[in-house]
Amino acid sequence: MTGPEIERLIQLLARLPGLGPRSARRAALHLLKRREVLFLPLVEAMTAAASSVRTCSVCGNLDSCDPCTICANPKRDPSQICVVEEIADLWAIERSAAFRGRYHVLGGVLSALDGVGPDDLSIAALVRRAGDPAMKEIILATNATVEGQTTAHYVVDRLAGLPVRVTRLAHGLPVGGELDYLDDGTLAAALQSRRAISSAGGGG
Amino acid sequence: MTGPEIERLIQLLARLPGLGPRSARRAALHLLKRREVLFLPLVEAMTAAASSVRTCSVCGNLDSCDPCTICANPKRDPSQICVVEEIADLWAIERSAAFRGRYHVLGGVLSALDGVGPDDLSIAALVRRAGDPAMKEIILATNATVEGQTTAHYVVDRLAGLPVRVTRLAHGLPVGGELDYLDDGTLAAALQSRRAISSAGGGG
Fold first, then answer.
1. Which end of chain A is more exposed for a tag (fewer CB within 10 A), N or C?
2. pTM here?
3. What's the CATH number for B68-196?
4. ipTM of predicted complex
């Protein structure tokens, strides 16, 4: 019905997460009708990103420099490493602006079903970084899923013996969350990890 | 948190229909992690489409040639024109493979609210095409919305006096549709346009 160029464009757009065949067609039309203001700038941005973005050899983040902006930033505490499953998790924590240390991206989770073993993740590199005498704390920020927690346990085992403090993110009520809508597991975890609110200061 | 190249990529991806800021981030990561199999082919397809695709000067379709493949195809009946609002509608009818004539894309609908008047749509060109002595039928396939039907009425008025048959798409039950879930307007239209099923042949 249309040229092969449009067909191929739609086919490839449909492989983006969140876009199916129908929305890929809409996206292609949207681009073709906005050539100057969107299509050409997007092509340019994609070309720039494709040629300049690489994986940080230290933490596994994606950036246009290696080591990445975070690893190269002297203001980021080098004695704290936050361990995440994926780059998207790193970005999410950065958006919260609640962490001023550095990161380590595992690149996935252990999964017997998917055939992902310890050698498929960036665990050896993490152990090496954790062995740095200046290292103080490794924060495990894997997802609160079975695979995420299994992976965290495995990492804890691998870090055993090193003189670093190993912590994990707290589980509990999401801020703004309502008890009535919370699942039982989260509620149980929130109850178990309850903290004192007296002026004497809370316990973990 | 990441290089300006990634930020810009995410920003532009978020302007695609169906993608918000969050899904644009996911899409950008998806692309960056699949450089060889998806990112570079997509950049190539976009570059090819951006440079070759143009608007057909006859019907308003998008294609890599002008006149477009449909207008240039001698097997497509030149005496029938199907009038649609947008290119997406043309593509939808083509997918149904139920029409072997040619098209005319209006480029929108009349809308006092959005300040779209007759001169903003490709109506004069349609009247010119309809005036061709070989032209037999103009099928109005605008959406069954208030704006779509208003636009259809206006086009009918503009075509008055020309020796062509002007028709519109039937309204009724969608194939596979259930009466119980149908809105009253559609049900009324389907009832009003009922057809005889005797062997003598149905009436419109």
1. C
2. 0.80
3. 3.40.1360.10
4. 0.81
